[in-house]
Specification:
The structure holds two protein chains of two kinds.
Chain A (H helix, E strand, L loop, with lengths): L1 H5 L1 H20 L1 H4 L3 H25 L7 H19 L2 H26 L3 H19 L5 E2 L7 H7 L1 E2 L3 E2 H19 L1 H11 L1 H6 L4 H27 L1 E2 L7 H11 L11 H20 L7 H18 L8
Antiparallel strand pairs in A: 1-4, 2-3
Helix pairs in contact in A: 2-14, 2-15, 4-9, 4-10, 4-12, 4-13, 4-14, 5-6, 5-7, 5-12, 6-7, 6-12, 9-10, 10-12, 13-14, 14-15
Chain B lengths: L1 E12 L2 E12 L3 E5 L6 H8 L7 E6 L2 E2 L5 H6 L2 E5 L10 H5 L14 H14 L19 H14 L4 E5 L7 H16 L3 E5 L3 H7 L2 E6 L2 E7 L5 H13 L1
Parallel strand pairs in B: 3-8, 3-9, 6-7, 7-8
Antiparallel strand pairs in B: 1-2, 1-4, 4-5, 9-10
Helix pairs in contact in B: 5-6
The chains are: A mainly alpha, B alpha/beta.
Chain lengths: ~325, ~250
């Protein structure tokens, strides 16, 4: 009983995933009882999920980040030009992830040092970073077709046994790291307290500013890495890259049970949430529904999940 | 032996003079009640002691040594801990996390020794708060504790980390009678364990029950200092009303 109570949010989200899978298997058994669809899912889920992991830390810390789609594009752009110039995937990844971290540091500077509320600061940087990237790229896409012949590509986007995409392996590793950080590491503890009650955290000797700076840099690094994964998988970079991710990443985090008020959230919930969100579109199309249905079903799933959370919150059940 | 000694301390915020030559001292294993009207300067005084504000003028001695630069961090290193009502706990976090907030026992990689921390928290819950078999565990969120229990948790936490001086800022305000009584017994425990305490409160009955000495702050000055042995509750009440009426 205690187990059910303690992990109720995780159980809710897992049930929704299983329900959806069963529904899709029932509606289109040919697709969902064969392995191909799962390989395809594993290749696209990480783009959303890596962003959602970073955003979970930001939101648990009581902050917001709306700049990550632009950071993805900027990092992807740096990845592309470094790869085109040097031909080294490793150098390109390092440069891209560094760019992401730098963008995160810019956000942190505005929020922590200047004192701009994060939601406003990151609306600004989202335009600034996207704008600068488009200017530098002269609005043109970059082809990375040569990347498919490299060893680096095998590590980023290759397929294990022709089935499991490497980006999914990276996602699993990152999920475990984030899970450990938020639940068992002192950094995660600082993030929770900063988001829950920044004053108490300060009184008890936690550096709130340093914690916020840390989460924004981590978010930038995640955005950078997600941008790398997209570029590598598609062997292409384009100036509007990342634009479609904004709302689905937020949806993944919130259907995963993270509280918008900060202090509360689970990495497991975000991981499953990203899977659900990424599953819906392809699931519907292969079930014979038109693409027109996608947003409607997103809406139903999100509303259902967040209503469950509201009804089973600590206060409602007297925990 | 005096742990804290303030001599002729001045502090202003712009044009407002919060403290105008305050004298104050706290001995080892002593409970001092800090009394006075709202805006008299009590909060400013304890904030100087806990390192939140620097003082403008005057001498601040800690264990006989003169303090030039002070901060909340240094105050904690010198084992001075302030317990604010509700403000030093994070409601949605587990009790054990709150207990070890900012002072976790970690390994060299920074991972928290959860097993140890939960075990220690459980001990404190049972010993200090008397919470046995009421469904509250170290994993429960702080929001499941009553107001008095939260004070108890904060006081227990300060004592666990071996604070020498515990500053309690209005610990019984907004608490029901039986909850206040719990807090009073936690304060007595501070004395029993040989620690010192500065107690700010409006409730004379509560402070009279536990304090050894009363310092009355009035208009930024501490002119009146009374030992418990030299007064009774009625007399103390009268003195305080006289001060407010000036």
């Amino acid at each position: 009983m205690n187990f059910i109570l303690k992990y109720r949010h995780q159980l809710i989200i897992t049930s929704i995933l299983i329900l959806l899978l069963c529904l899709f298997m029932f509606l289109s058994p040919r697709t969902f009882l064969s392995s191909g669809i799962y390989s395809a899912y594993m290749s696209t889920i990480p783009f959303t999920a890596v962003l959602a992991l970073g955003l979970t830390l930001v939101i648990v810390c009581g902050e917001m980040d709306l700049s990550f789609p632009a950071v993805m594009a900027a990092s992807g752009f740096v990845f592309s030009i470094v790869f085109i110039e040097t031909g080294s995937v490793f150098l390109s990844v390092a440069a891209a992830v560094f760019t992401g971290g730098l963008c995160g540091a810019l956000n942190a500077f505005l929020i922590v040092k200047i004192g701009v509320p994060s939601i406003i600061a990151t609306i600004g940087t989202q335009f600034f970073i996207r704008g600068l990237t488009v200017l530098l790229a002269q609005g043109l896409a970059k082809s990375l077709i040569g990347i498919r012949d490299t060893f680096g590509y095998q590590i980023l986007s290759g397929r294990i046994a022709d089935f499991i995409p490497m980006q999914f392996v990276w996602l699993v590793i990152l999920t475990i790291v984030f899970l450990l950080i938020l639940n068992s590491h002192v950094l995660g503890d600082r993030i929770r307290f900063t988001g829950d009650n920044a004053n108490a955290a300060r009184i008890m000797g936690i550096s709130v500013n340093r914690t916020k700076t840390f989460v924004f840099i981590i978010m930038g690094v995640c955005s950078g890495f997600s941008g790398v994964l997209v570029c590598s998988e598609m062997a292409n970079w384009w100036p509007t890259q990342g634009e479609g991710f904004m709302l689905i990443v937020f949806a993944s985090v919130f259907i995963g049970g993270t509280s918008v008020f900060g202090g509360k959230g689970t990495i497991y919930g975000t991981f499953i949430g990203s899977i659900i969100i990424s599953m819906i579109e392809a699931g519907l199309v292969s079930a014979g529904a038109q693409g027109l249905w996608t947003r409607f079903v997103y809406g139903i799933v999100i509303i259902t999940a967040v209503s469950f959370y509201a009804k089973t919150s600590d206060k409602k059940i007297g925990q | 032996m005096e742990i804290i000694r303030l001599e002729n301390i001045w502090k202003s915020f712009g044009k407002i003079h919060a403290l105008e030559g305050v004298n104050f001292s706290l001995k080892k294993n002593e409970i001092v009640g800090l009394l006075g009207d709202n805006g008299a300067g009590k909060s400013t005084l304890v904030k100087i002691i806990s390192g939140v504000f620097p003082h403008d003028k005057g001498n601040f001695y800690l264990n006989g040594e003169k303090i030039e630069k002070f901060s909340p961090k240094l105050a904690r290193q010198n084992r001075i801990e302030t317990v604010h009502q509700d403000r030093s706990l994070a409601e949605n976090q587990a009790i054990w996390r709150n207990f070890f907030m900012g002072r976790h026992k970690t390994n060299f990689l920074g991972f928290i020794d959860k097993k140890f921390e939960k075990k220690e928290t459980l001990k404190i819950l049972q010993k200090n708060l008397g919470l046995k078999g009421v469904g509250i565990t170290p994993d429960s969120p702080v929001s499941s504790l009553s107001g008095g229990e939260r004070q108890g948790l904060s006081i227990g936490r300060a004592m666990y980390f071996d604070s020498e001086v515990i500053i309690l800022d209005e610990p019984t305000t907004a608490l029901a009678q039986n909850e206040s009584q719990k807090v009073i017994s936690f304060i007595k425990e501070i004395k029993n364990q040989g620690k010192s305490c500065i107690l700010i409160t409006h409730n004379l009955r509560h402070v009279f029950e536990v304090a050894d000495r009363f310092v009355i702050v009035s208009r930024g000055k501490t002119d009146t200092i009374i030992n418990k042995a030299d007064t009774d509750l009625d007399n103390l009440t009268k003195i305080l009303i006289d001060h407010a009426g000036i």
